[in-house]
Every structure is written in structure tokens, then in C-alpha cells.
Design the sequence.
């Protein structure tokens, strides 16, 4: 359906071009970066760009595909600036129009350093398919008897990297869901089996806490190699105790001595990789790839830590200046493999040269976001500029100091555990839970002024990035243009429906009397609920037959033929059709709510707010006089026969909930849109037919949560926000968060909890 043709395996910042592969049924694509829109593509070629900003940070890039009617077709997702496989492969399947029908497969790949695959192979149910050399497309033959077949595509790249995809082709297969997990390095801070983590204010139960193996990725400054060589020579002549400061008495007065080769071993269970900070640049088309030579994995059996650090000298050399910060950022990606403890070690020498694209402060913030601890050693007493760049630095100018630093490194990794939570989460969003059982893994030194400054810089950069994205979303939200009033059909008799007018051919006087009570009570109910006092007015067009309503609706141009009601420029219309009385009055409340909202505010609102306000009123029950009962939900229990049971003459029945209570239960069971997505959704996506009831219900219930949830703590602030909007103020997410004194992300967890509790009490 849709896939990324541009795959980003390295570090990326700034404006990145995005290219997609989409099937012929795709009419529109929306790109979202970290949950917020960054581009909209209306036609092929499906190419655009997204702005990542100057900060190095993990990102989630999602492409949403929509059909011509606005319904969602599918999505593609990739994660940027996080550990990924050295080679990746994407496959998109689309039917062809030929006879007999066939399926076309389109490929996209990314190899190490941008390399093209040496070979691409494809099999269908184990049988090879013919592929031309370098082909990015091939066809899959039809299968007359139908049924699902297994397609496997495999690409081999230089250096031995292999990428493969397995897909089911054809057949009526049920959707398969795979559970994604995220692991983050933590330390045990309190008593408890597992504890919790948090994404924003959403508590995430920890599924497991594991020790596992560890990754130590070391970046060696070329200027440090002579000092490491000198330390190795001293190690062959000098013996140190286990404490690193001479001989110490052991049990029975004997000396316990050990060679530095033993004391400065690799941390327990760790595998080592060495990164040479001098890059070789390669180009593929317009793209440039910088490759930093990296050693194969090494273990404790390959020698002491000192011996192995010196092996950096054997990596490929280049005459270009070293790029320490860039190499540290790459090392962090290498270290942050799922399920493994990790640390990056930087060893610098005197006056380390630097030619990196990213400065040290930016890279340190990146490691903090990626949750990778950084340890910095210096073979000489570090200059002030080195400490300013890298924070806390340990001096390893002698063997005892090296042994002490190695113990320090060992202790840091020994304390680490990997905590697993369900779902895929950006690592920088994960925090320790309030139960105090876990804390995020950090370097084994006190939080000094430099660390505090670095944390402040990271928070400021994140806030600036969030503000820039909020401004981009606000500017991208188009203000609806004024439309002419909808004409009232001249053949419909007119009568009063105070404070509105009514044009209708409905003859059910009882229903009209109920509608009259509801219309009369609604303006006061609306004002009491939301703190707005609109001047009511307008005309209600109430059709007896649905066909007449649909015909009139089609004459209005641009109206969605699937809607059950309509409101524009002082006219609200709906049909009685086969609806029950309570359903008709709920529709009437919804459409009259639009007239009242527009009268109070005077302009279009963001779709979640516009529809949320009116649906919050419509989903409530009403008393015998038509007045709204705030905070209630309409519900109807329907019972129907579903077939005979084993006992003769007996029929089995089932009961089902319908109405807003059923919508609430559906939202609780999920999936449901996240609040940040709901508030950022443009009009065309929000009102698209597929998923529309869930979006309307979620918006209404979010407003109800702000009014009634958490003992009404947000009620006055929400009403203040609405009053400011009515006075001409902004209605965007930033204005709402400023009025509430909290963020939408922080409200997600209490809103989810409130939904569950509400469903339990109202089902």
C-alpha cells in the first residue's frame, strides 16, 4: 500500500527529503514527525520533506495514506537516529490492471554506506521468481485457485549485510498484530519487583527487568594512542594490587598482587567495539555518507581493555582531521541495541583536535535522549576546554588511574538493567515512574555544574523544537472560508421552534413537541455547560424522508453524503427517516449546537473542538422537559435472537449496547486516537468517514473529562479558554495548554484512566 523509498540508517538533522512508494489507490499522503504533521502530499510523485531541526534526537516519521473519500488506507513508519539494522528492505504490493490480474512488487532498500545490493532474490512459496539485475520492480503471477502465498524478498549487500522481507500475498488473511517492546537502561533504586516507567504522564508497567549482556563502544582520539602505548609498556614492568595503589596484605599476611592486565579487563559480560573518529566520505547520487571505521566485536578473551583500546591503531587511517563528537554520536547508535546494557567510552589525549559537524554539547544531549551513558577518559590532565566540551573527565595518566577508571566503568555497567515496556516509544520520552523502584541509568559520578548546564540546554532545545512545531501546525491549519447560507426548501411548511424557526414536512406532532422542548432548553444548557452565552437563532430544516434530505444535501455542494445532519450559516438540517425519537433529538442537539457555537465564537474552530462541543451535548440524556442532564450518556440495550439452542423450542438471545455508551466502550477497548493526534488533525482527516464516530466521541469525552474529571479541577480553566476564544483569542493546542496549565501529553494518562472508570460505571 505505502512504504518509504528513502531510508535513513545514519544520523540526520535539518531538512530531510522524503520519498514514498504508494499504490494506485492512494489519493493523498500525510507525513507526521513525532506525531505532528510536517508535510501533505496530494499527488505522485510522492515526494516531500520534513524539518528535523538542528538538534540530534530520535524521531518517529510516519506516512499516512488516504483514499479519495478520505478514508485511511494504511501507514508506513520508520525511526530516525535510533539503532537500526545495517541494511533494510521495503516491499510494496499493488494489483496491476492487465489480464490475467497480477501483483506488482516495488522495492526500496538502504545498504551500509548507501551501497546498492549485490543481489536481490525473491521466492513465492519457496519457488524462485525471475528478477532482472538491479530491478526495483517485478510481477507476481496469478494463482487461479486463490489462497495466501508466502513471498520472500532478500537483498545481499557488500560486507555481508543481508536484508529480507516476508509478506503474505493474496487470500483472505486476518490482520496480524505483532507486539512491539521498548527496552531502556535503568538502575534499581528501590524495593520492588519491576516498577514502572512513564511516557509523559502515562504510566507504563514494566513487563520484565533483565541484566543480559552489555555493549562498550569506545572512541579513541588519535592523540591518545601514544599515551596508551606508554601505559602498556609500563604494565609489562609494574605490578599493582587489586586496589590499584601498591601491594596490599591479604589473608594470613600474604600479598595479593595482580597484573594490570587482569585488573583492567573488559567489564563483565561486555562486548567491545572500537570506532576510529576519522571518517571516509562516500557518495551515492546526491547523497553523501560518512563512514567511521569500526572494529568487529571483541570480548574479554581477546585481551585486556588497555590492549584492546590500543588496537584502534590498526583501523583504517585517513589524513583528514578527527571528528570526535560525530564519532561519539555514531557510537551511541551502535551501543543502544535493544535488550543490552550500554555505555560509550571516549578516550582523549592532549589538546584533542575536532572537525565534527556536531558540537560536543549537541552530541551529549543526543546521548541523553538516546539513554546512553557517556564516560570520558583523558590520558593527560584535561584542559578547561575539554571539560567544557565533555563534562566530567577521568584522568588515566597512570596504571593505577587506569585500573580505577576501569573499575568505575565496570561498576556502571554492573548496576544497569534493561526494563521492557509494551509499545514503541521514543527513548527521550521515557522517564522513571513515581513508585521510585527504577531510575534511568546514568554515569557513575555526581551531577556537576556542567551536567546541570547540559540538561538545561537539552530541555531548552526540546522546548524550542516543540514551540516551532506547534507554530508550524497553527500556521498549517487553514481558516475555513465563508460560505453562502444554505437555502431552505420553499415547499416545506414554516412554523416556530423558539428561539429558532422550523421548516418541516414531519406530521408526527408528538415528535415535534419533543423537538420544541429540546430546542427551547438548549441555549441555556449550552451556556451553563461551557460558560458561553450565544444569541440563539437560525432555521431548522426537518425532513420526514431521508431521500429528500439526501437530495437537498447534494444540492449544497461539497457536503458529505454520508453525514446524518448538516449545519451551515444559520441553517441546521436533518431527516427523521427511521430514527427513534431520542436519536432524532440527539441529531437536533448536535446540529443546533453548531449554530450556537458559531454564534458564540463567530468563526470556525479546530475540528476536534467544534465537533467535541456539540457532540458532548448530544450524547447526554434529557429529562421530560427536554433539558440536558450534564455528564450523562444515552444508552439503549437491544436484545435479538441469534439462533436456536439445543433445547427444543428455545431460542438463544444476545443483548447489545448502542448509542454513546457503546462508543465509550469501543474507545476503552481501543484503538483510539491519541490526544496529540486528535488535536492536530486537519478538517478533512477528522471528518473522514472511516473512524469518524470514534474521533467525534473521543473529542466529546475529552471535553467532558476536562469539565467533570479529576473532581472538576480543569473546569474553570476550560471555560476560561472558551471565553478567550469567543473574545477572538487563539483556539490552538498551545492556547489550550496555556489555559489549562498543563500539556495534552500530560493529560493523556488521567484521561485514559477516566475513560476506563467511566465505562465501568455506565455499562
Sequence:
Amino acid at each position: 500500500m505505502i512504504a518509504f523509498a528513502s531510508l535513513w540508517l545514519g544520523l540526520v538533522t535539518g531538512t530531510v527529503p522524503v520519498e514514498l512508494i504508494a499504490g494506485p489507490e492512494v489519493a493523498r499522503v500525510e507525513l507526521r514527525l513525532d506525531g505532528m504533521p510536517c508535510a501533505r502530499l496530494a499527488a505522485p510523485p510522492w515526494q516531500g520533506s520534513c524539518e528535523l531541526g538542528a538538534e540530534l534526537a530520535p524521531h518517529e516519521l510516519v506516512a499516512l495514506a488516504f483514499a479519495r473519500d478520505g478514508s485511511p488506507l494504511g501507514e508506513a513508519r520508520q525511526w530516525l537516529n535510533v539503532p537500526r539494522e545495517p541494511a533494510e528492505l521495503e516491499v510494496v504490493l499493488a494489483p496491476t490492471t492487465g489480464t490475467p490480474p497480477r501483483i506488482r512488487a516495488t522495492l526500496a532498500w538502504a545498504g551500509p554506506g548507501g551501497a546498492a545490493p549485490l543481489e536481490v532474490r525473491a521466492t513465492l512459496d519457496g519457488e524462485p521468481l525471475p528478477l532482472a539485475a538491479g530491478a526495483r520492480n517485478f510481477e507476481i503471477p496469478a494463482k487461479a485457485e486463490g489462497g495466501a502465498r508466502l513471498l520472500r524478498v532478500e537483498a545481499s549487500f557488500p560486507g555481508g549485510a543481508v536484508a529480507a522481507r516476508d509478506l503474505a500475498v493474496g487470500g483472505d488473511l486476518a490482520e496480524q498484530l505483532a507486539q512491539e517492546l521498548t527496552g531502556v537502561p535503568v538502575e534499581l533504586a528501590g524495593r520492588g519487583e519491576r516498577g514502572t516507567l512513564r511516557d509523559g504522564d502515562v504510566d507504563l508497567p514494566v513487563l520484565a527487568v533483565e541484566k543480559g549482556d552489555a555493549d562498550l563502544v569506545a572512541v579513541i582520539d588519535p592523540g591518545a594512542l601514544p599515551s596508551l602505548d606508554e601505559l602498556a609498556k609500563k604494565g609489562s614492568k609494574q605490578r599493582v594490587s587489586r586496589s590499584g595503589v601498591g601491594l596490599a596484605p591479604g589473608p594470613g599476611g600474604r600479598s595479593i598482587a595482580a597484573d594490570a592486565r587482569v585488573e583492567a579487563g573488559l567489564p563483565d559480560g561486555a562486548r567491545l567495539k572500537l570506532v576510529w573518529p576519522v571518517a571516509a566520505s562516500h557518495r551515492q547520487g546526491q547523497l553523501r555518507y560518512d563512514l567511521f571505521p569500526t572494529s568487529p566485536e571483541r570480548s574479554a578473551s581477546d585481551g585486556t581493555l588497555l590492549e584492546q583500546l590500543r588496537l584502534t591503531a590498526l583501523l583504517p587511517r585517513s589524513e583528514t582531521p578527527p571528528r570526535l563528537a560525530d564519532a561519539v554520536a555514531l557510537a551511541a547508535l551502535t551501543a543502544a541495541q535493544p535488550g543490552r546494557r550500554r555505555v560509550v567510552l571516549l578516550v582523549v589525549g592532549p589538546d584533542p583536535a575536532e572537525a565534527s559537524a556536531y558540537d560536543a554539547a549537541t552530541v551529549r544531549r543526543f546521548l541523553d535522549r538516546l539513554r546512553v551513558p557517556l564516560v570520558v577518559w583523558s590520558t593527560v590532565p584535561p584542559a578547561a576546554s575539554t571539560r567544557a566540551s565533555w563534562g566530567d573527565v577521568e584522568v588515566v595518566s597512570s596504571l593505577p588511574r587506569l585500573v580505577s577508571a576501569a573499575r568505575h566503568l565496570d561498576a556502571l555497567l554492573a548496576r544497569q538493567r534493561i526494563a521492557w515496556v509494551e509499545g514503541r516509544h521514543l527513548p527521550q520520552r521515557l522517564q522513571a515512574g513515581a513508585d521510585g523502584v527504577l531510575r534511568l541509568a546514568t554515569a557513575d559520578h555526581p551531577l556537576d555544574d556542567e551536567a546541570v548546564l547540559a540538561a538545561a540546554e537539552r530541555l531548552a532545545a526540546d522546548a524550542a523544537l516543540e514551540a516551532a512545531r506547534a507554530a508550524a501546525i497553527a500556521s498549517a491549519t487553514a481558516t475555513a472560508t465563508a460560505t453562502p447560507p444554505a437555502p431552505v426548501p420553499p415547499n416545506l411548511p414554516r412554523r416556530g421552534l423558539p428561539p429558532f424557526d422550523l421548516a418541516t414536512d414531519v406530521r408526527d406532532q408528538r415528535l415535534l413537541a419533543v423537538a420544541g422542548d429540546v430546542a427551547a432548553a438548549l441555549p441555556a444548557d449550552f451556556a451553563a455547560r461551557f460558560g458561553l452565552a450565544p444569541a440563539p437563532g437560525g432555521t431548522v430544516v426537518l425532513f420526514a424522508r431521508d431521500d429528500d434530505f439526501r437530495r437537498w444535501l447534494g444540492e449544497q455542494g461539497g457536503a458529505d453524503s454520508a453525514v446524518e445532519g448538516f449545519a451551515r450559516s444559520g441553517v441546521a438540517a436533518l431527516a427523521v427517516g427511521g430514527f427513534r425519537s431520542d436519536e432524532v433529538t440527539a441529531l437536533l442537539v448536535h446540529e443546533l449546537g453548531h449554530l450556537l457555537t458559531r454564534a458564540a465564537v463567530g468563526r470556525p474552530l479546530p475540528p476536534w473542538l467544534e465537533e467535541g462541543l456539540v457532540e458532548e451535548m448530544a450524547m447526554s440524556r434529557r429529562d421530560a422537559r427536554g433539558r440536558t442532564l450534564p455528564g450523562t450518556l444515552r444508552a439503549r440495550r437491544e436484545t435479538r435472537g441469534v439462533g436456536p439452542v439445543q433445547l427444543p423450542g428455545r431460542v438463544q438471545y444476545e443483548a447489545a449496547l448502542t448509542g454513546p455508551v457503546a462508543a465509550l466502550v469501543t474507545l476503552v477497548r481501543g484503538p483510539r486516537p491519541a490526544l496529540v493526534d486528535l488535536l492536530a488533525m486537519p478538517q478533512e482527516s477528522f471528518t473522514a468517514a472511516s473512524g469518524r464516530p470514534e474521533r467525534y466521541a473521543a473529542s466529546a469525552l475529552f471535553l467532558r473529562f476536562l469539565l467533570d474529571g479529576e473532581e472538576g479541577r480543569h473546569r474553570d480553566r476550560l471555560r476560561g479558554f472558551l471565553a478567550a476564544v469567543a473574545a477572538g483569542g487563539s483556539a490552538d493546542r498551545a492556547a489550550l495548554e496555556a489555559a489549562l496549565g498543563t500539556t495534552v501529553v500530560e493529560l493523556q494518562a488521567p484521561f485514559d484512566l477516566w475513560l476506563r472508570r467511566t465505562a465501568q460505571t455506565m455499562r
The mean pLDDT is 79. Residues 284 and 350 are 37 Å apart (CA to CA). The longest helix spans residues 449-476. The chain has four domains: 2-176, 214-230+267-445, 478-604, 606-618+634-643+650-763.
